[in-house]
Structure formats: C-alpha cells, structure tokens
Amino acid sequence: MDMEKLTIEINEQFVRTNDIIPLAENVGMMVTPLTLDEKYWIFRVKLYEDQAIIGFPKFTTIAIGFAQEDDWNTNLPYILPAEQIYNHIAHNKKYNQIPDDKCLEAIRLIQKTIADIERGKA
Prior knowledge:
- By secondary structure, this protein is of the alpha+beta class.
- 22% of the residues lie in helices and 29% in strands.
- It has one domain (8-118).
- The chain has helices spanning 82-89, 100-118; strands spanning 8-10, 20-24, 27-30, 43-48, 51-58, 61-66, 75-77.
- A 5-stranded antiparallel β-sheet has the order 1-4-5-6-7, with helices on one face. A two-stranded antiparallel sheet has the order 2-3.
- A hairpin with an 8-residue loop joins β6 (61-66) and β7.
- The longest helix is centred in the C-terminal third of the chain and has 19 residues, at 100-118.
- The chain is globular, with a radius of gyration of 15 Å.
C-alpha cells in the first residue's frame, strides 16, 4: 500500500446494531453490540496490509481505533486530541512498517471528516 497518500473510506452499507437494552420506561443500558466484525466501521483509513484506523459508533459518540486489535476494545472518542488517541491505541499497530506519523494523519483525517459532516460540508 502506498504510505504517501492516505484516503478515507465511508462505509455507506453500515448498519448500526442495537446497543441499548431497555430496562424500564425511559431507562436503558448501553452495551457493546454483539455483532462486532470487520464491517463494523463508518470511517476507515487503510494503512498497511490488513491494518487500518477506523471510526465507529460507540455509545453516544464515534470512537477511533485500529481495525485489527490484539488488545480488544482499545479506542477513544474522536473528539480527543489525535496524539492522545494514538498514544492509547499504539500498542495495537501490529506492523512496524506503519510510521507513527501516518497513524496520526489517519486519525486526523477521520476527525476532519466527522467535523465536516457535522458542519454540513460533506
């Protein structure tokens, strides 16, 4: 994969699974969806081989993490600084061939895309 030019993909086929279990009237418990798989992402930036940084729904926000994780469920909300997100997820990078600056660039690309959508620019 060309490490010079990163591009963002938007998963238009994404279907959010039910992540709220009703407990009582107007009361629910948020849970991790049961059907988490390789298609559970809205935003993806491919990095190297099978590794990518993805943005996906998590509770009331979009979380950012690596697509392939040895340490499962390591991600943070997109609104945090890119450096903080990367420092938290870096141990899941998987390949030494992926430069840290490309991971940061991928995180920022997802953050910018979300911001553009929120402002109605996408």
